[in-house]
């Protein structure tokens, strides 16, 4: 009996889920217009990172718990949520995760998010919270908290992006996908991983793409940060266009379907989705109410790190201008206040920093990391530079793109990645357009520190110190 039902389910849904139903133009006949969509909305958001998908640097305490005895080392610390569940086993993992889900984000957070002038939240969630892949150690259960979050968002008049942050095998190999395997995103290893991802999205569309969410769920992001340079981009494009069609077929709510840029150059998705370059006839379709999600950090390459605040400011002006020239509406859906990669475990448990050139990075050190999360150690210059870095992004993304979403709302101990702490420390303007230094893309600070790079500065400091030493010893 069961197999008969399964057969029927496959017959009815399979074609749509797996994209075989290409005869439609992807329009459900009973469409309900979302109360607001990305055409008439300017994003000012935060991501609830580290909540429904764990990230060690956001909540280190959950991971440091494994390093609690005298005979453990950092090597005993699970590196991601997958290993966290694997090491603890389902019962213990569930109990710890439930405690975390219950406490890390509460209704009060939504009240506060609203009170600091934000208008939406991006909520990362893993595929395993909808449908586990056979053999997964993951704990299912986060979906109830997502539902609470949507209720709270509605209460405080905030919009929600549901963001599928992890797919089977990992779309990027980063710990934030649930499964870390740096350099080896395994998502496309098996057809079943990709098919599983379609199924998960189908269940998301079926539930959250309905009338009851019309006031709140502004968009659904089909997959976060697929690492295009290491994936087969033809397959990524196929995934986007197929799941888009499924969204429009499945949903009655005409909300925004969000595509991360997959680390491709600006304009790439215009070519694929608007200009339809290189696209086979069968995949052509009408795309409406879509949004491209660009993420921008300047701390994950040595070149990016080795720049003065003046250079960082120029980068943002140029970057936002170029986004503004794209055809598909776009946001900067992740950015932060970071000017170094010093926050412990930012690059992953057990991984060093480019800033200090520690393993596995082989570059020359650019500076010292000590004190990055200790406010009393910050120099006036650090405070100013960070404030400018935040202001220029608010200014440029806010005026030249559909808006921005800061990563993230809160962390246990960072400064640069924690919206709330940045507000408390007066590095994040309040109100959000109350700028101290930046006026329309320009640094108006009369005491601008020079435009030389960090490394050059460090060298000069050393030279000056040496000269002083020589002078004082004479
Ligand atoms: C394709 O979708 C259309 C409309 O959504 C539906 O009428 C048709 O039965 C579907 N065909 C298949 C093979 O699923
Ligand atoms: C979809 O097809 C129907 C019937 O062919 C047409 O009326 C409708 O305008 C189309 N919708 C879009 C978005 O192309
Ligand atoms: C070392 O670890 C084991 C479990 O891994 C534990 O049983 C033992 O008590 C620990 N020893 C010390 C000295 O902490
Ligand atoms: C973990 O334990 C090792 C060995 O006791 C220690 O050297 C290391 O600093 C600890 N790591 C953290 C992050 O506390
Ligand atoms: C909300 O904001 C208030 C006032 O700034 C603060 O005291 C409180 O800790 C915040 N609560 C949460 C959960 O963010
Ligand atoms: C995917 O394939 C690569 C290369 O063979 C391998 O290193 C990796 O472990 C695989 N990952 C998964 C999740 O299957
Ligand atoms: C990428 O995927 C497409 C579609 O499955 C396939 O035709 C192509 O050969 C793949 N390219 C590479 C380099 O594997
Ligand atoms: C349109 O959406 C509704 C609600 O999600 C669903 O019940 C219905 O099957 C969809 N229609 C088609 C043709 O897919
Ligand atoms: C389209 O194909 C051309 C030539 O094969 C290639 O250079 C270009 O990058 C492709 N564009 C996209 C969007 O895939
Ligand atoms: C869906 O929303 C878009 C953007 O507002 C609009 O252009 C389109 O006509 C809507 N489609 C339907 C079928 O309501
Ligand atoms: C703007 O921010 C400054 C501190 O950065 C603060 O003193 C001032 O009160 C703020 N202005 C308004 C209108 O809130
Ligand atoms: C802001 O700067 C841009 C580019 O430099 C200029 O075109 C625009 O007029 C300026 N806007 C205001 C309000 O000064």
Folded structure, characterized:
- The chain has a single domain (about 1-55, about 100-335, about 375-474), classed as Alpha-Beta Barrel (TIM Barrel).
- It is about 35% helix and about 10% strand.
- It has 13 helices and 12 strands.
- The protein has helices at about 1-15, 60-65, 80-105, 105-115, 145-155, 190-210, 235-250, 270-275, 300-305, 310-325, 380-400, 420-425, 455-474; strands spanning about 30-35, 45, 120-125, 160-165, 215-220, 255, 255-260, 290-295, 330-335, 405, 440, 440-445.
- The chain has an 8-stranded parallel sheet with strand order 9-8-7-5-4-3-2-10. Strands 1-6 form a two-stranded parallel sheet. It has a two-stranded antiparallel sheet with strand order 11-12.
- Helix 6 packs parallel to helix 7 (about 235-250) and helix 10 packs parallel to helix 11.
- Residues about 1-25 have low confidence and may be disordered.
What is the fold's blueprint, element by element?
Layout: H1 2-17, E1 32-33, E2 43-47, H2 60-64, H3 81-104, H4 107-115, E3 120-126, H5 143-155, E4 159-166, H6 191-208, E5 217-221, H7 233-250, E6 253-254, E7 256-260, H8 268-274, E8 290-295, H9 302-305, H10 309-324, E9 330-334, H11 380-400, E10 403-407, H12 419-424, E11 438-439, E12 442-443, H13 454-473
Parallel strand pairs: 1-6, 2-3, 2-10, 3-4, 4-5, 5-7, 7-8, 8-9
Antiparallel strand pairs: 11-12
One 2-acetamido-2-deoxy-beta-D-glucopyranose (NAG) is lined by residues 106, 108-109, 112, 420.
Total number of domains: 1
Distance linking N and C termini: 95 Å
What is the name of the CATH topology?
Answer: TIM Barrel
Question: If you compute it from the alpha carbons, what radius of gyration comes out, rounded to the nearest whole angstrom?
Answer: 23 Å
Structural class: alpha/beta
- Cofactors, ions and other ligands in the entry: 2-acetamido-2-deoxy-beta-D-glucopyranose
The biggest beta sheet, please?
8 strands, parallel
What is the strand tally?
Answer: 12
Rounded mean pLDDT score = 90
Subcellular location: Secreted
Catalytic activity: Successive hydrolysis of beta-D-glucose units from the non-reducing ends of (1->3)-beta-D-glucans, releasing alpha-glucose
Protein name: glucan 1,3-beta-glucosidase
GO biological process, one term: cell wall organization
């Amino acid at each position: 009996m069961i197999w008969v039902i399964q057969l029927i389910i496959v017959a009815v849904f399979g074609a749509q889920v797996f994209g075989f139903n290409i005869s439609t133009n992807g329009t459900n006949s009973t469409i309900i217009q979302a109360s607001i969509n990305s055409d008439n909305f300017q994003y000012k958001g935060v991501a609830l990172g580290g909540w429904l998908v764990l990230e060690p640097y956001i909540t280190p305490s959950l991971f440091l718990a494994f390093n609690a005895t005298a005979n453990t080392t950092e090597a005993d610390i699970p590196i991601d949520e997958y290993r966290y569940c694997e090491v603890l086993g389902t019962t213990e993992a569930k109990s710890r995760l439930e405690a975390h889900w219950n406490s890390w984000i509460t209704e009060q957070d939504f009240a506060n998010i609203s009170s600091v002038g934000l208008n939406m939240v991006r909520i990362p969630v893993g595929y395993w919270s909808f449908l586990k892949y056979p053999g997964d150690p993951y704990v299912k259960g986060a979906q109830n908290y997502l539902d609470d979050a949507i209720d709270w968002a509605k209460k405080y008049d905030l919009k929600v992006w549901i963001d599928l942050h992890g797919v089977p095998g990992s779309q990027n190999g980063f710990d934030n996908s649930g499964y870390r395997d740096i350099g080896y995103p395994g998502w496309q290893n098996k057809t079943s991983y990709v098919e599983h991802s379609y199924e998960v999205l189908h269940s998301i569309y079926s539930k959250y793409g309905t009338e009851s969410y019309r006031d709140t769920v502004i968009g659904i992001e089909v997959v976060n940060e697929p690492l295009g340079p290491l994936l087969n981009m033809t397959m990524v494009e196929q995934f986007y266009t197929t799941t888009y069609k499924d969204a429009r077929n499945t949903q009655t709510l005409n909300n925004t379907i969000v595509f991360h840029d997959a680390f491709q150059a600006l304009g790439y998705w215009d070519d694929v989705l608007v200009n339809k370059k290189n696209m086979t006839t069968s995949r052509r379709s009408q795309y409406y109410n879509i949004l491209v999600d660009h993420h921008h950090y300047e701390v994950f390459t040595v070149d990016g790190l080795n720049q003065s605040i003046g250079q960082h400011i120029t980068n943002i002006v140029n970057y936002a201008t170029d986004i503004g020239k794209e055809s598909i509406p776009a946001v900067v859906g992740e950015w932060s206040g970071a000017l170094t990669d010093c926050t412990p475990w930012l690059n992953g448990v057990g991984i060093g920093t480019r800033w200090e050139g520690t393993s596995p990075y082989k570059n020359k050190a650019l500076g010292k990391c000590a004190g990055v999360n200790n406010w009393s150690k910050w120099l006036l210059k650090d405070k100013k530079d960070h404030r400018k870095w935040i202001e220029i992004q608010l200014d440029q993304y806010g005026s030249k793109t559909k808006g921005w979403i800061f990563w993230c709302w809160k962390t246990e101990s960072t400064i640069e990645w924690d919206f709330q702490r940045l507000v408390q420390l007066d590095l994040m303007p309040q109100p959000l357009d109350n700028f101290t230094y930046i006026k329309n893309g320009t640094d108006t600070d009369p005491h601008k520190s020079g435009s030389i790079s960090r490394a050059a500065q460090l060298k000069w400091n050393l030279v000056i110190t040496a000269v002083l030493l020589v002078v004082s010893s004479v």
